[in-house]
Amino acid sequence: MTTLPLKFYQQPTLELAKSLLGCKLVKETAEGVASGFIVETEAYIGPNDQAAHSFNNRRTKRTEIMFGAAGLTYTYVMHTHCLFNVVSGPEGLPEAVLVRAVEPVQGLELMQTRRNNRKKKEWTNGPGKLTKALGIQREDYGHNLTQKPLYIQKGIQPSHVSHGKRIGIDNSGEARHYPWRFWVTDNPYVSR
DNA sequence: TTTTGGATGTCCT
DNA sequence: GGACATCCAAAAA
Questions:
Q1: CA-CA 20 to 30 A from A2: which of A20, A50, A177, A186?
Q2: Is the pLDDT at A171 greater than 90, yes or no?
Q3: How far is the CA of A118 from the C1' of B13 (A)?
Q4: Calpha distance A145→A162 (Å, rounded)
Q5: Cβ-contact A161, A183 below 8 angstroms
Q6: Which of A147, A171, A130 is nearest to A37 (CA)?
Q7: How far is residue A40 from each of residues A13, A32, A74, A135, measured CA to CA in Å?
Q8: By the 8 A CB rule, do A19 and A153 touch?
Q9: pLDDT tens-place string over residues A17-63
Q10: What is the spatial distance between Cα A140 and Cα A136, in angstroms, rounded to a whole number?
């Protein structure tokens, strides 16, 4: 398995969101290595996307990393959970891809413990769940995804990919209708 | 300095 | 289907 080069992240955000499906997200911690195939993503394309934190070029301490170069990590704390994004687009353009679900591959015992002995299907089928299962934390903010301990490896492009409206952004005006969510068709680990 | 409001998950009914 | 947990940072005061 080869780690994806920086060049991979430099394609258009919508393309990247699709290309990430089937790739393997890996996190190494002191407790061990945990990884999973990405099966669901969402694109957030700044300044014209009302649902994105970076809407209207809003640049703050939190969204700053979205303006950075492609291939960096954008973590965000929502209520009690942490969400994981991959920054995309050239430097200066605030775009990112949210990873919503993965399929467990490696470090199964570790994930089971972190997910409190739930059913395997429920370990990683949601944006807040997968970060807990893999051990991704707010401290990973700004990390370069071509390096350890958090990186993405080349996978197999799935044969069937579905797309549709994004989730959880009902108060985002017209943007909520954009078909910018992508998932592997019929994969049991997508969030819904 | 205080208030407010989430790109969610879990538990309860 | 609905309440609530529990934290950060933006915005208001």
A1: A186
A2: no
A3: 22
A4: 26
A5: yes
A6: A130
A7: 14, 24, 17, 18
A8: no
A9: 999 999 999 999 999 999 999 999 999 998 999 999 999 999 999 99
A10: 7
Give the C-alpha separation, A181 to A162, whole Å.
8
A134 has pLDDT over 90:
yes
For residue A172, is pLDDT > 90?
no
Q: A6-184 falls under which CATH superfamily?
A: Methylpurine-DNA glycosylase (MPG) (3.10.300.10)
The DSSP code sequence of A123-166 is: SSSSHHHHHHHHT--GGGTT-BTTSTTEEEE-----S-EEEE--
The whole-number Å distance from A100's CA to C7's C1' is 21
Strand C contacted by A61 CB (< 7 A): yes
